[in-house]
Design a protein that fits this description.
Low-confidence stretches: none
Structural class: alpha+beta
Radius of gyration: 23 Å
Strand content: 5-15%
Oligomer: single chain
Largest sheet: 3 strands, antiparallel
Number of strands: 3
Number of domains: 1
Order of helices and strands: HHHEEEH
Bound molecules: zinc ion
Distance between the termini: 75 Å
Helix content: 40-55%
């Protein structure tokens, strides 16, 4: 019992450390790329050890190959091609693709128009 509690406590601690490491990586991304890469490397090792999934905003901020923190326009190239977001790491050349978020359907008929159609069909 105690062991299990300890593990969940350790996991939440690890989660906090991962978030902090990503914040550090962001804060130092402007000066030295290698420091933020080290932060991200540590965060990823922690996430693997405690089987924590790196959450969405963070998971897209770094290169999976060389761990560098992405600064769009400086070390990352972002393009949209065939409904996909393509992020290219300028440090090592790794490419990642994400699907574009789905757009909501805007061709729905407004309620007033639908009512008019009904009235017309009644008159015929
Ligand atoms: Zn890279």
């Amino acid at each position: 019992m105690a062991k299990r509690n300890d593990r969940s406590k350790q996991r939440s601690l690890a989660e906090e450390r991962i978030n902090r490491l990503f914040e550090l990586a962001r804060e130092h991304s402007g000066e030295d790329g290698s420091f933020s890469a080290t932060c991200i490397k540590h965060a990823r090792v922690l996430a693997m050890k405690y089987r924590i999934r790196i959450k969405k905003p963070y998971s897209r901020y770094f290169c999976r190959k060389c761990n560098s923190y992405f600064i769009p326009g400086r070390n990352a190239k972002t393009r949209i091609y065939r409904n996909r977001v393509i992020v290219t790491c300028e440090t090592c050349g790794a490419i990642r693709r994400y699907p574009l978020p789905e757009k909501k359907n805007t061709t729905e008929i407004p309620k007033n128009n639908a009512g008019n159609v009904m009235q017309k069909s009644n008159a015929e």
